[in-house]
Amino acid sequence: MDTIFKPANEHTILQAAALLRQGELVAFPTETVYGLGADALNEKAVAHIFAAKGRPGDNPLIVHVADKSQLDDLCEVTPDAEKLMDAFWPGPLTILLKKKPAVPDITTAGLPSVAVRCPDHPVALALLRESRVPVAAPSANRSGRPSPTTASHVYEDMNGRIAMILQGGDCRVGVESTVLDMTKDVPCILRPGAVTKEMVISVLGRCTVADSVMRPLKEGEAAPSPGMKHRHYAPRASMTVYIGNREKVIAEICRRYDEAENAVILALDGDIPSFGERHVLSIGTSPEETAHLLFKRLRETDEMGVSLVLAQGWEGEEMVLAVMNRMARAAAFDVIKL
Ligand code: AMP
Ligand code: MG
To answer: Ligand 1: residues whose CB is within 6 Å?
Structure first.
């Protein structure tokens, strides 16, 4: 299949919307990462998403809408969920709600809930409005690779596999949306993102975070969110993340680097001079900047063919949770506190 690879504009967005209505796959930019979209109500089209990504069939998709009025046929919107939509949509918050029969089982991997979100990106919103269908869209990477935050990342993974890629520059946030389960008594974050627990509490007065967010699942433990049990975000190299005392972290990273054959360091900007002549890639000066850069850097380490990635991590709350959730998974939970 020849994949159309074009900058998003009025004309190409109409072309992409027509392809979606015909049951084809279209990748498009959002504020979090690039999504790989199909008509969420078309079983065949959704099956193509799983095939194109090599995604396990038990990992449900997020359904994207242009606004909350499009949810009527898809799910049961509770008053609390509506408050969150009014506060954070369009934006990086995915809400799990009881699904209605119109949503095919393949879209939700057979679960009774459906994940819904309205993305905060002009291209995504225009595409959703023009297509007039709810769009199931996971991240537009091959399963197991870091999520794509530029159109060229999507091209690397999806050229020849899908009908079209709409180019729309770098994604602002850089990590996937917060996944919030609103089907339980207390709202629970299953995947941390840029809409934080504190932000949900400011609207609803309560919110918890699933404790499996920052640790591997135990043998036989059920995943609260199916995506959590699959290998995720990983670079090809092995990776260790260091947190804690700054001087000790820098010294230990230098020691491991010097011992290794072919390593690279992911460093916070201010500390780069401390690593001297060693090979360093910047992960910015704030958790927000690290979120924006992380997946791009992980793909660069793949291209460089290094065998070891040594990364400085963050400690703290809010956006730190989203960043460290991705870093910990990329490192297969090899996170060391010094
Ligand atoms: P992706 O769009 O690739 O970032 O993946 C979407 C993620 O949302 C999945 O990996 C799941 O963990 C989560 N998700 C989507 N729908 C549901 C659902 N109905 N129940 C629990 N988790 C869900
Ligand atoms: Mg994904």
So the answer is: 59-60, 62, 96, 108, 111, 113-115, 138-139, 176, 179, 190, 225-228
